[in-house]
Amino acid sequence: MALHGDLRILSGTANPQLAEAICDHMGCKLTPILAETFSDGEIRIEIGANVRGADVFIVQSTCSPVNFNLMQLGLILDALKRASASRVTAVVPYYGYSRQDRKVVPRAPISAKLVADFLSVAGMHRLLTIDLHAGQIQGFFDLPVDNLFAAPILLNHLKDAYKGEDLVVVSPDAGGVERARAYGKRLGASLAIIDKRRDEPNKAKAMNLIGSVKDKVAIVLDDMIDTAGTICEAASVLKDHGAKLCVASATHAVLSGPAIERLENSHYAEVVVTDTIPLGPKAKECSKIKVMSVAGLLAKAIHNIHTESSVSVLFV
Fold this sequence. Notes:
Blueprint: E1 7-11, H1 16-26, E2 33-37, E3 43-47, E4 55-59, H2 66-82, E5 87-92, H3 111-122, E6 126-130, E7 145-148, H4 151-161, E8 167-171, H5 177-187, E9 190-200, E10 203-210, E11 217-225, H6 229-240, E12 245-253, H7 259-264, E13 268-274, H8 281-285, E14 289-292, H9 295-306
Parallel strand pairs: 1-4, 4-5, 5-6, 6-7, 8-9, 8-11, 11-12, 12-13, 13-14
Antiparallel strand pairs: 2-3, 9-10
Helix pairs in contact: 1-9, 2-3
């Protein structure tokens, strides 16, 4: 039974297609919202229906343009707070600034914490997200955070596409070993690790391979693909060590800078991602990118949150 009023789903301008797909799964319609930009760049927000006493979910990834989408989300939260919504859940499939979760040099901000404070003060009661870059970001909030995993969606495709193959799951760096091990267990695959050294932000060099990939289908696993430098370098290393076929899999397709060109010219047979971030025109034309939707997963989570059912049943 819903304890927080009628269900309302809204969408910012970051990923309206995903919001529509979520509503299709739930058999409801998006609540109308006016989101415009004034000539000086300021954002105008107006909720187009009564939300007093309602249980509201806002779908808005804080992807590129990151600062615009983040500010828009904050303004929508404030509008809902002032419109007396009973509870407001921010559905942020991709949480921007998540890679800036600690101080790595002196006199630097912890940007992921600042974003958490901003959203909390703006009026958010709960956060629903997918595959946070750093799980400890959940501790930056003094409110409930549901961090879902896209693994079941990606694994279903990989199991069907490469059934019967000798698989090895490859982590492109030491930090992703736990994720790769979990995928490997579900796929019945072995594990390999790329030893990576990073000298500058967005620039990495893959050095050594730990494990055997010879004559195997190598699945390179990461939480996101940004400039694709790391993941494409990993494919070259795997091919040099005798991999039969290279496949990339990641939740968030950030795909900035030269990423599309790099992936198109890489050794990968396919690059499997989700729609937490909408693909740009160039990415849609890339023959190697295959998109799996998280709409069904988010719809189930929204239903369970709204009805006060367990969300942990989705962590499989």
